[in-house]
Amino acid sequence: DNKKLCLSSGEIIKLSSTNTLMFEARDLAVASPATVSRCGMLYLELEGVGWKPIVKSWLNSLEISLKSHIELLENLFEWLVQPSLNFIKSSCKEITQGRVSPAVVKNLTQILNSLFQVNGLNSGEISQESTKLVPSIQSYFIFSLIWSIGGALDYSDRKSFSYFL
Questions:
Q1: Best CA proximity match to 106, nearest among 81, 76, 88
Q2: In angstroms, rounded to a whole number, what is the distance separating the alpha carbons of residues 104 and 99?
Q3: Which of 46, 68, 93, 148: disulfide with 108, CB 3.0–4.6 Å?
Q4: How far apart are CA 149 and CA 92, in angstroms?
Q5: pTM of the entire structure?
């Protein structure tokens, strides 16, 4: 490609060879044939992808020090995430249009990463015995679940979500 971004106003912005643009579009209703022909596009139905591939990819990226706790993390995701998403879908108002489950699950993994890093669990060296980490990991998971999935709700729905948990 010529690395030029052509705006609808007629302005052309030259991009350097190190720049890459990625756009996430809901549909291609207003895309021109030139845009479609120049871009490598991949379309995935959200229902077909879901949140599980995000979790699987995240689990594969964990530091070796946390690899012994992958089964625990998988069980926590299976036990809590889908029921929480189902509760929100059936009992709460949708704040944003579209489907939010992959986004909030991604947020959950990012919060977990932060907590692991701040508490030294993602450093490669864990000073605590492996079995002593289980309550900490469970606590970090619940905290992350509350702030990722519950954080996307309004006040009254947060109270309902709290009772649900």
A1: 81
A2: 10
A3: 148
A4: 12
A5: 0.70
